[in-house]
Amino acid sequence: MKRTQNNPEEDTLVLQDCDREKILSGMLDRDNFSKWLGIVVDEYRAGFCRLHYSIKEEMLNGFGIVHGGIVFSAADSAFAFACNSHGLVSLALDVTISFIRAAKSGDILTVEASEINTGKKISFYNVTTTNEKGEIVSVFKGTAYRTKERC
Predict the structure, then answer these.
(1) At what angle do helices 68-83 and 17-30 cross, to 10 degrees?
(2) How confident is the model at residue 67 (pLDDT cuts 50, 70, 90)?
(3) pLDDT at 87 over 80
(4) Contact 138, 128 (CB under 8 A)
(5) What's the CATH code of the domain at 79?
(6) 120 is in which domain, residue-wise?
(7) I need a surface site. Which of 57, 77, 90, 129 has the fewest CB within 10 A?
(8) SS3 for 121?
(9) For residue 70, is pLDDT > 90?
(10) How far apart, in whole angstroms, are the C-alpha atoms of residue 146 and residue 91?
(11) How far apart are CA 121 and CA 146, in angstroms?
(12) Sheet with strand 40-45: strands edge to edge
């Protein structure tokens, strides 16, 4: 890990890929709910995370489709991984989700979190969940607060 001075008013933490992988593995090791979801991280870099998971029977609601809380939780996990990828502990300030279409048991959902903008303290993310056909299942927007604490 090294520090750079891009702007005299802003001290930015720049991470090597190995440092970033340590952050991700540390978060995953302590995140029992993401483990229960069966999340597999496919790609992880600064401000970005792509993961996937399979819908299991125990994730369905009373209508036989995936519970919205499951879709929200997986999107929230991708958001957390992406916003903490810069090496500073980041916490959600505000999130919203819109459910576009249902998913059912056996579906594999892909979640992609992308940084829109990041500042010294606040960062913004779009998180999209798609099914195997590439159809949008949900759209999640998140705002994160970056602390001074290192991950």
Answers:
(1) 150
(2) very high
(3) yes
(4) yes
(5) 3.10.129.10
(6) 2-150
(7) 57
(8) coil
(9) yes
(10) 7
(11) 5
(12) 40-45, 48-54, 108-118, 122-130, 136-150, 88-99
Contact criterion met (CB below 8 Å) for 38 and 30: no
Distance CA 67, CA 55 (A): 10
Q: Note whether 109 and 129 are within 8 A (CB).
A: yes
Reduce the DSSP state of residue 81 to 3 states and report it.
Answer: helix
Q: How many CB atoms sit inside 10 A of residue 33's CB?
A: 11
At 132-146, the pLDDT tens digits run 999 999 999 999 999
14 pLDDT higher than 60: no
> What's at 81, amino acid-wise?
F
CA gap 116, 133 in Å, rounded: 25
**Secondary structure letter of residue 89 according to DSSP:** E
- pLDDT given for residue 17 in this prediction: 56
Higher confidence at residue 76 or residue 23?
Answer: 76
